[in-house]
Amino acid sequence: MKKIFFLLGICTLSFYQSQTNRFIYELQFRADANQEYRKALMNLDISPKSVKFYDKNFADYDSINKSSQMGNSHFSTKTDQVIERQPNSFKNNWYRDFFEYFVVKTNDEMKWKLLSDTQTYNGYTLQKATTDFGGRQWTAWFSKEIDIKEGPYKFRGLPGLIFIIEDDKKDFIYKLVKNIKLPKTYTTKDFVETHYGKAALPISNEKFNKYVEDTYSDPVRMFSNGVKNGGSTFGKETVESVEELNKKKAMLQKGIKSRYIYIEKDKEPKFN
Fold it and tell me: How far is residue 256 from each of residues 73, 159, 214, measured CA to CA in Å?
């Protein structure tokens, strides 16, 4: 079978001398088996000085903006999976968009168990490996034919590129679908390191969760006093009573709770 990626014959040295190698993954994710999958395409960009993983739509909109000389689009991530790290490192900058833009520094070293099982995927021989990470059990399929110890999101450290990885409940499934070699280092400064000019605020995961939980507990607090004192402004809408404000509160809480499906169950906010 003809291989879909133009990677054969590329040694590790020549790979890292290149500018940006982009691996595109199809991601399917859901909260549990009772829900339909959400879907997204994700870019894994590997350059000599960095490894970045983010929603493909960021790069698509960025290219449109640059080619049309339009202002920056304020696209928000669907996945909460915007990651930056140095090559050969488990230390990640985890960029998180929740009204403000934050960066959480994490150390995500994981221990892999290599198994003898193999399968063929688009002409490549893949080997099976498993690990526990983020409160989930994961199965990865990697290829030693591609001597790159990287993969989607924070997953890395196997003796080859990860082509497929999924958790045991199949709530998160990543599949490599395409590889593109870009002629120069691809800059992401407008949508990874910053959010269209808004600098990422350093924060711990614990403080980020508290911020999300506090916002969830009273998402209309900035408007509450005004409405109670006879005001009627709620953003661009008019609110005539406390009862209407409470309906807005319930709507916003539903949106906050369902905004992200958290891949790391042991680090997710707790909603009461």
Answer: 22, 39, 11
pLDDT category of residue 179 using cuts at 50, 70 and 90 = very high
170, 158 Cβ separation under 8 angstroms: no
Closest C-alpha to 96, from 218, 220, 212: 212
Residue 72 and residue 53: Cα distance in Å, rounded?
A: 20
In this prediction the pTM is 0.88
List the 136-143 sheet strands across, edge first: 113-121, 124-133, 136-143, 161-167, 172-182, 20-29, 38-47, 50-55, 82-85, 91-98, 100-107, 201-202
20 close to 45: Cβ distance less than 8 angstroms: yes
* Partners of 177 in beta bridges: none
